[in-house]
Amino acid sequence: MTNKLIEICETKRHEVAARKAAMTVSTLHARAAEQTPPRGFRKALDDAARSGFGLIAEIKKASPSKGLIRTDFDPPAHAQAYAAGGAACLSVLTDHSYFQGHEDFLMAARSACALPVIRKDFLVDPWQVLESRSIGADAILIIVAALEDSQMAEIEDAAIGLGMDALIEVHDAHELERALKLQSRLIGVNNRDLRDFTVDFARTYELVDKAPKGCTFVAESGLGSHADLLTMADHGVRCFLVGESLMRQADLEAATHNLLTGE
Ligand SMILES: O=P(O)(O)OC[C@@H](O)[C@@H](O)c1c[nH]c2ccccc12
């Protein structure tokens, strides 16, 4: 079994080293200062989940396991359609090498709507948090499987210092325990194991019962229908991160509305 996550993070470390050499921290700070303040990511999810479901709709062109997902890829149009369809937040893939993402996609999507946006990428260095804010991101992702405890804490501190939210991604009970040593109470369970890409909803069901009260709990990956959301809701989960199944629909506004309401 190949461990794709290790490979991706190795590539990312090289990429970050090159970026750091090309861009000073003061330039990043200056760019961050030009951005509008962070939009409350967790708050938007919690508000939506109080009366329905909190949906993080993902702008995803391609993935390592599925290849190209969307040919007429248009981040600002997708952002507006997701917002009109009732999404609470956006997720935008910015990793170039494995997901055909780009920083420009995040900037274009965020400018096109009022939703908070998470930068979906592989963070291996706190420097990337400032970089994320410099392109407008409101939240960042911390993948527990990819990091040591001390690295996670550094990355989270950087996010908090910039007023951003951090979504802490886990996929087993041990990772959840490590996640709960951090300050953030925004926890995502990835139903897809990034080490081998298998999807299993039971990962979420098992962990939701172990999360303390007061956590915002997000089920991620492999969700395709309103029925899936209702099944998750039976287990007490009200927030979701959905990419591929939405991105494959021609009418994203209708698809988002249908996912959330069944209509
Ligand atoms: O396209 P899906 O199956 O709906 O999954 C979305 C999202 O969960 C997935 O893109 C994701 C979750 N965690 C990640 C970490 C890195 C890259 C991608 C991801």
UniProtKB/TrEMBL annotation:
Gene Ontology BP, a term: L-tryptophan biosynthetic process
Catalytic activity, reaction form: 1-(2-carboxyphenylamino)-1-deoxy-D-ribulose 5-phosphate + H(+) = (1S,2R)-1-C-(indol-3-yl)glycerol 3-phosphate + CO2 + H2O
EC number(s) stated in the UniProt entry for this protein: 4.1.1.48
This protein's UniProt keywords: Amino-acid biosynthesis, Aromatic amino acid biosynthesis, Decarboxylase, Lyase, Tryptophan biosynthesis
SUPFAM superfamilies noted in UniProt: Ribulose-phoshate binding barrel
rRNA processing recorded as keyword: no
Domain Indole-3-glycerol phosphate synthase: 7-259
Similarity-based family: Belongs to the TrpC family.
Protein name: Indole-3-glycerol phosphate synthase
